[in-house]
Write a structure and sequence with these properties.
By secondary structure, this protein is mainly alpha-helical. The chain folds into three domains: 12-93, Fumarase C, Chain B, domain 1 (Orthogonal Bundle); 118-134 and 153-180 and 217-341 and 406-428, Up-down Bundle (Fumarase C, Chain A, domain 2); 346-392. It has helices at 12-15, 27-43, 49-60, 72-83, 97-133, 153-178, 197-203, 213-218, 221-247, 275-298, 308-336, 350-359, 364-376, 386-392, 401-446; strands at 138-143, 146-152, 180-181, 208-209, 255-256, 338-339. The strands form three sheets. It has a two-stranded antiparallel sheet with strand order 1-2. A two-stranded parallel sheet has the order 3-4. A two-stranded antiparallel sheet has the order 5-6. Strand 3, helix 7 (197-203) and strand 4 form a beta-alpha-beta unit.
């Protein structure tokens, strides 16, 4: 232990507050933040180039966290004090664990969001391809889980893509909130040490500085905003998952799930249980619970850093991990799911018949009641087929082949635009991180 001078590493009260095991997740980001700090100390004239070189070498040699430390930050500083000689004593200058962990968390969240957004682009591309393949594949959609009207499976898949595209945009918008640098804010009010926070921000690929030092060190609202949008994505996907479970049931029997996503019973050999989707459904509940735990912990904390915030971090990563795994599983299922041949109930053409009568001069509500009476009395006989019903749909976004092609074209255009946005964002980050690597290499080569 470096900071705390009481207790021992075997003391349960001391180890109770340690986050060392969980900090493995952000180890690389903590090292990246420390490098930016060292380079800034050198550029601002607070340490010599030789001292900066020794500190950077020490950071690169730090590979594991001894769980006896309070956290990764204490472990890294103690490592530098032991390996960089006298230079190690300068590493705490103008620095606090509060601003360093806030910065590392934002770097980790940024990386996770970018990876998820990239994954969702692939997912959406696959959905559009399958929608195009299933323009004319008969399908039934439901309201109140009662058969409503005929459509095509391609039309249903376009619904999935648009839901995910909307969530993609929401998650992307949170990137700018996350991508702001807290570094240089110290514990809560900054430091009298002359540090250029804008330069530190650029070296880490941030878009800008999170200005107020109280907010920079103690706020987690931006991270929570991102997680909220990720959970919203999971809520949207959970409805698709539920569709897969119900529509593949023999009670309905419209979909056939791939063999790799079903399992039989240990007793009943005929069963094809939708096991991956059932687990997905439960995992959505888990991430929703994580979000509630995060919000409950964050609620009413006094301003400034509190160690309660440490307990939020593992929950943030669990939400991201479960979401990315879930998207991967659903991607695989929707690539392979098949619509089975089935007979549509003729009553799902009732709306079409009412519209046909309305087109002949009968007021729609009168036509509606006429058709409803025929259905109740078992005398309903449609004059068109389900295929004709689909082809008759005229409004934008409906399942007629013409409108479907239009919808797929618009969705592809949107997808390409989103891919360009993400590419530009990554390039911005790489440019900043590239500057950090160049400066690090320049300092390290000086001593060779």
């Amino acid at each position: 232990m470096l900071y705390r001078k009481w207790g021992s590493k075997e003391d349960k009260v001391v180890t109770y507050t340690s986050s060392s095991r969980e900090d493995v997740r952000i180890l690389d980001k903590v090292k990246q933040v420390m490098k930016a700090h060292v380079i800034e100390l050198f550029l601002s004239g607070n340490i010599t180039k030789d001292e900066a070189r020794k500190l950077l070498q020490g950071i690169n040699s730090f590979t594991r966290i001894d769980p006896s430390y309070e956290d990764v930050h204490e472990a890294l500083e103690d490592h530098l004090i032991k390996t960089a000689g006298e230079a190690g004593g300068s590493i705490g200058l103008g620095r606090s664990r509060n601003d360093h962990v806030a910065t590392a968390l934002r770097l980790e969240m940024r990386e996770e969001l970018l990876a998820l957004l990239e994954q969702l682009l692939d997912f959406r591309g696959m959905i559009l391809k399958r929608a195009e393949e299933n323009l004319g594949t008969p399908f039934v959609v439901y309201t109140h889980f009662q058969p409503a009207q005929p459509t095509s499976f391609g039309h249903y898949l376009l619904y999935v893509e648009e839901e995910v595209a909307s969530r993609w945009s929401s998650i992307y918008r949170t990137l700018d909130l996350v991508n702001r640098s807290p570094l240089g804010s110290g514990a809560i009010v900054g430091s009298s040490v002359n540090l250029n926070r804008d330069r530190e921000s650029t070296l880490l690929g941030f878009k800008e500085v999170l200005v107020n030092t109280i907010s920079a060190t103690s706020s987690r609202a931006d991270l929570i905003s991102s997680v909220m949008e990720v959970v919203n994505l999971m809520l949207a996907l959970s409805r698709i998952v539920e569709d897969m479970i119900l529509l593949s049931s023999k009670f309905v029997g419209i979909l056939e799930l791939p063999d790799t996503h079903v399992s039989t019973s240990s007793l009943m050999p005929q069963k094809r249980n939708a096991v991956t989707m059932e687990v997905f459904r439960a995992r959505v509940s888990r991430v929703l619970g994580d979000l509630m735990s995060i919000a409950s912990t964050y609620k009413s904390l006094p301003s400034g850093y509190n160690l309660d915030l440490q307990e939020v971090n593992p929950l943030l990563w669990e939400v991201l991990d479960e979401t990315r795994t879930g998207v991967e599983v659903l991607h695989d299922l929707l690539t392979k799911v098949r619509v089975k041949e089935f007979k549509m109930d003729k009553e799902i053409l009732s709306t079409d018949e009412a519209e046909i009568l309305s087109g002949k001069g009968i007021r729609y509500r009168d036509a509606y009641f006429t058709v409803a009476k025929a259905v109740r009395e078992g005398k309903f006989s449609p004059t068109i087929t389900p295929e004709q019903s689909v082809s008759r749909k005229a409004v934008k976004g409906s399942p007629s082949p013409e409108r479907m092609r239009e919808g797929i074209s618009l969705a592809r255009e949107r997808l390409n635009g989103d891919a360009n946005l993400l590419r530009e964002y990554k390039n911005w980050i790489l440019k900043g991180e590239g500057e950090l690597r160049l400066m690090e290499n320049d300092i390290l080569q000086e001593g060779n």
